[in-house]
Design goal:
The protein has 134 residues and is α+β, with helices and mostly antiparallel strands. It has one domain: Roll (Ubiquitin-like (UB roll)), CATH 3.10.20.810. The chain contains four helices and six strands, in the order H-H-E-E-H-E-E-E-E-H. A four-stranded mixed beta sheet has the order 2-1-6-5, with helices on one face.
Length: 134
């Protein structure tokens, strides 16, 4: 088990964006949202190439900042996200991909039954927990 991804200890990565800038990666954050339920599935990043691929293929394609490569969501896991539309914020520095999952799973982590979780926001921070770790 990866303690950051599936553990109970809070370990927020406040340096993630600093690392992006240091490596010169030109990306924008992307919120992936279920077009029907409106639930936020996860947050990722897109560069020009992945956005172009997303629009051409009509499925979520992202930029993996950890692997520094194109990430067609679902190629490895089977959890493909079909694109409904792309929204751009007022400052044009972030996107929302409204998608429809082909399967029930979205997250690369697994629940107790071994199934891919339906979103990546499966943990809730309580006030006492936040204060203990900040």
């Amino acid at each position: 088990m990866n303690s950051i991804e599936e553990g109970t200890r809070l370990s927020l990565d406040f340096g993630k964006l600093t690392g992006l800038a240091e490596r010169g990666q030109r990306v924008v954050p992307v919120v992936l949202q279920d077009a029907d339920s409106k639930e936020v599935l996860f947050v990722a990043y897109a560069n020009q190439e992945s956005l172009r691929e997303t629009l051409e293929t009509r499925r979520a394609v992202l930029w993996s900042i950890s692997r520094d490569e194109l990430w067609p969501k679902g190629d490895g896991s089977g959890d493909v996200l079909d694109l409904v539309d792309v929204r751009v914020n007022c400052e044009q520095n972030s996107l929302v991909y409204r998608v429809r999952p082909r399967t029930g799973g979205v997250c690369h982590t697994r629940d107790e039954a071994g199934r891919a979780r339906p979103n990546c926001f499966y943990r809730r921070l309580e006030d006492a927990t936040i204060l203990k770790f900040l």
